[in-house]
Design a protein that fits this description.
- This protein is about 30% helix and about 25% strand.
- With about 350 residues, the protein is α+β, with helices and mostly antiparallel strands.
- A hairpin with a 2-residue loop joins strand 2 (about 20-30) and strand 3.
- The radius of gyration is 22 Å and the shape is flat.
- Bound molecules: iron/sulfur cluster (2 copies).
- One iron/sulfur cluster binds near residues 235, 238, 239, 241 and 330.
Length: about 350
């Protein structure tokens, strides 16, 4: 299904999505984040600072609560996510491509029911990039495209005073049907314009990873390269790169004790981070990734080698956030190009 939506009608579409809690990009104190729509969505954002991964994989979630009363059997109460549908507007193509990658992690050999119960209730309404929203975009180098529809339910393309709106999944189609007469049929001129807009977007210059297909093997050959330590020297282990990444997914699980007698509390999952020095720290005090070089190598190899070996695709979607936001300028494109250039 392909339709035209006048930009003035976007509030009408949001209002028609009565079964959905709608979210969209919002600018707060200079930072673009996803916020509840409150009747409208803005789609003039470059990209959001944080990726939309937290709709399906929140930074903190409770698995169950527990209570142990003396002389009684322990009581566990599972806490599943609420059955609420969420429509996330303004998802850029790189972040859309993050969705099937997260699905692989949380629902491939083993189903993570907390993830899948959220995920099945989320629709991603994408916005094609007419040109790269950041100078650090490199989606074309990792098999993506500024007009990719991977992971999306609907793709919107900005045509100036209107959007070209295309349903990608049955869910997306149902969302467009809900809009009814708000949408118009595209004319031949609209079809021509969207085709040209997409072609121009793909032709727009971006940053590049050299020889992306050769990267997994070259990284494997470079495991012991001294370059890792050299390039990671400035890293302060803040973890910004992975927290903002649409496909980083490491987590920790802890029991939070609220009362000691009688014992009660909650089992909680929180994001963890391979760039933290204690991420791999053993209780013996030994740390197999004891320096920043080993930790940078892990992050890069996971994105471009290990995930590729497991699933046949780069895990990185080229959003450029880790490059733009690293406070000390560690740049994954430069790192990959430099290490692979020197591969033995
Ligand atoms: S590794 Fe960096 S560029 Fe790649 S998807 Fe993650 S944040 Fe984006
Ligand atoms: S954002 Fe930069 S400094 Fe912070 S952990 Fe990542 S690479 Fe290190």
């Amino acid at each position: 299904m392909e339709k035209i939506l006048d930009k003035k009608q976007i509030d009408g579409w949001v209002a028609a999505l009565t079964d959905w809690e709608v979210h969209g990009p919002a600018l707060e104190e200079g930072i673009w984040t996803y916020q509840p729509a409150n009747g409208t969505v803005r789609l003039d954002h470059p990209n959001t600072k944080q990726s939309p991964k937290e709709f399906a994989f929140p930074q903190r979630e409770i698995f169950f609560s527990f209570e142990q009363i003396k002389g009684e059997a322990p009581r566990l109460t599972q806490i599943m996510p609420k059955e609420q549908r969420h429509a996330v507007f303004g998802v850029r193509p790189c972040d859309g491509r993050g969705v099937p990658r997260m699905d692989k992690v949380f629902n491939d050999h083993v189903e993570d029911k907390y993830y899948t119960s959220r995920r099945k209730n989320i629709a991603y309404v994408g916005l094609a990039c007419n040109k790269p929203p950041s100078p650090n975009c490199f989606c074309l180098s990792v098999g993506g495209s500024p007009v990719s529809t991977d992971g999306l339910d609907v793709q919107m393309t900005d045509l100036g005073d209107r959007y070209f709106v295309k349903a990608i999944t049955e869910t997306g189609k149902a969302m467009m049907v809900a809009g009814g007469k708000i949408f118009a049929d595209p004319s031949a001129a609209d079809q021509k314009q969207v085709k040209q807009t997409h072609a121009d977007a793909v032709a727009y210059p971006q940053r590049k990873i050299n020889d992306p297909d050769g990267v997994p093997a070259k990284l494997k050959a470079s495991f012991n390269s001294p370059l890792w330590e050299e390039m990671a020297r400035a890293c302060i282990g803040c973890g910004i790169c992975t927290f903002l990444c649409p496909t980083c997914h490491c987590f920790d699980i802890n029991d939070e004790v609220h009362n000691k007698a009688p014992l009660s509390g909650q089992r909680v999952r929180t994001w963890d981070n391979c760039q933290f020095p204690d991420f791999t720290m053993h209780s013996s005090g030994h740390n197999p990734r004891e320096n920043t070089g080993a930790r940078l190598r892990q992050r890069v190899n996971h994105k471009f080698q290990y995930f590729h070996e497991n699933f046949g695709m780069h895990q990185c979607t080229g959003c450029g956030r880790c490059v733009s936001e690293c406070p000390v300028g560690i740049d994954i494109v430069t790192v990959v190009n430099k290490v692979t250039e020197h591969a033995g």
